[in-house]
Amino acid sequence: MMKTKFTKMMAIFVMLLMIVPIGYGNVKAAITPSSTAMITVSGIKGDTNVELYKVIGVDVDSTTNTPKNPMYLWHPDVMEWVKAYDNAHGTNYIAKTGDIHNAVTDEFNGSMDTAKQDEFWQTMAKDIRNGTLDLGVTASQKSDGSVAFPNSNMGGYLVLATPEPSAPGKYSSRIYKPTTAILTPTFDNGVWNLKNTTVSLKSSDGTIAKTIDDETVEVGQKLTYTISATIPAYAPDVENRYVNVGDKFPEGLTYNKDVKVYADEACTTQLTTGFTKYETPTADATFSVRFNDAFVAAHGGEMVYLRYTGTVNKNVEYALINTAFVNGPFNYGGSTQVVARSYGFILHKVGENNANLQGAEFEVKKKNGSEALAFIKMADGEYRLAEASETGKTTVLTTGASGTLQVEGIATGEFILKETKAPNGGYVLPNGEITLTLIDSEPNGMLDAGSGVTKTGSIQLGEEVKINDIILEFTVINGKGFDLPVTGGMGTMLFTILGLGLMIGAATLVITMRKKESNLH
């Protein structure tokens, strides 16, 4: 946005630091301390008020008509603000050089990080608008398309633009980014020259946007939402202006009644006045914030930011869709949605001849987790991750009559599934673990191809693993025990000995009875 112009200015500044000590006695000068040029601002869309704020001056020697060292000086009205900014952000943009207390340092140059530049100018713009920085407007014009500011003194200017619709009952939701206009002398062909400059405003015509800190979620997880909404600039004839900003939660998400309003995108400057919170849910909104007439009048063409949280509850759905909205007079409004997604898996337990096995028991842990996850039984073989405060939780998940175990309400990641009890019917308990990998990198509600199932130990998996959108489906096979073969044991030998014993006993009995009969005769 401002980098090209500002880079040129600061590159010149660094060059001048090397040139100035040499002296200017032989330099032909085409500038004087009071030299001026034209600043043209383009990129204006619709009725817009454009303001220039001079924040940096160029120090030119009145005798030699050449720049001094240091060349750039902060405007006296922004000196203390820059010092405070340095203290708050750990920067060094202002310094004392000899008797000069407001020199712009070489740290504030064109090679500085773009994000740092944006933060500096956006913070200054915000403080000018809210009155924290009392800096008078150097020049101001209302126009559409482009506007020229002739006879502008040398230096660096902050350019702020605010929509100001003139037609009755009209509004604008356009937001202009702060930019800079740089009028600094350049040394060309032995002469210091001051040339006209043109800057183009960057803007967007959005009404509302929303972000979420995590889009793959599980039951009990707290989510942080941020809404950025435009406060429209209304025409002067509009009375009783207001803007409503809010959100509508789905049943599976609990609003924590903690919305806060901020003036900046980083949500560090909290606002506490100019609005009313409504946190009792209605048919149309879970909560809303209503900005009053005075706030809308003072902040038209600016952004406000709402930050709040919601917790995924027991009514979780695979897609949690909530809708943020903004509205105001004359049909101003818009809405936006974000989606938080939960995931799950289906396990089919089968035995011999692919028979469904009821009663197999499992526990689930997150990978590297020490505790088994707690669930709520929803139906036969169907479980949902439990909220922390719920009663009736269990860590034992049992396959149902159809041999199926279905688990819902978990996020993406890796999970360890372990069978802790084999089903009845002579089936044995396998050793090892099953690892489930759920990946949705976009996320778009479709598990990625990298999602899958692996196993260790004696566990047997079916050949096919299905990915059904956000559900991972697979089969685990159980086997029965078997008898080991016996060789050289006591089994047949014992029967042989017993048989021989019986035969010997019978023979002995017969012989004895015959002897008794012989004696009788």
TrEMBL record:
<feature type="domain" description="Gram-positive cocci surface proteins LPxTG">
    <location>
        <begin position="478"/>
        <end position="517"/>
    </location>
</feature>
<keyword id="KW-1133">Transmembrane helix</keyword>
<keyword id="KW-0134">Cell wall</keyword>
<keyword id="KW-0472">Membrane</keyword>
<keyword id="KW-0732">Signal</keyword>
<dbReference type="InterPro" id="IPR026466">
    <property type="entry name" value="Fim_isopep_form_D2_dom"/>
</dbReference>
<keyword id="KW-0572">Peptidoglycan-anchor</keyword>
<dbReference type="InterPro" id="IPR019931">
    <property type="entry name" value="LPXTG_anchor"/>
</dbReference>
<dbReference type="InterPro" id="IPR041033">
    <property type="entry name" value="SpaA_PFL_dom_1"/>
</dbReference>
<dbReference type="Pfam" id="PF17802">
    <property type="entry name" value="SpaA"/>
</dbReference>
<dbReference type="Pfam" id="PF00746">
    <property type="entry name" value="Gram_pos_anchor"/>
</dbReference>
<protein>
    <submittedName>
        <fullName>LPXTG-motif cell wall-anchored protein/fimbrial isopeptide formation D2 family protein</fullName>
    </submittedName>
</protein>
<keyword id="KW-0964">Secreted</keyword>
<feature type="transmembrane region" description="Helical">
    <location>
        <begin position="490"/>
        <end position="511"/>
    </location>
</feature>
<keyword id="KW-0812">Transmembrane</keyword>
<feature type="domain" description="SpaA-like prealbumin fold">
    <location>
        <begin position="346"/>
        <end position="439"/>
    </location>
</feature>
<dbReference type="InterPro" id="IPR013783">
    <property type="entry name" value="Ig-like_fold"/>
</dbReference>
<dbReference type="InterPro" id="IPR048052">
    <property type="entry name" value="FM1-like"/>
</dbReference>
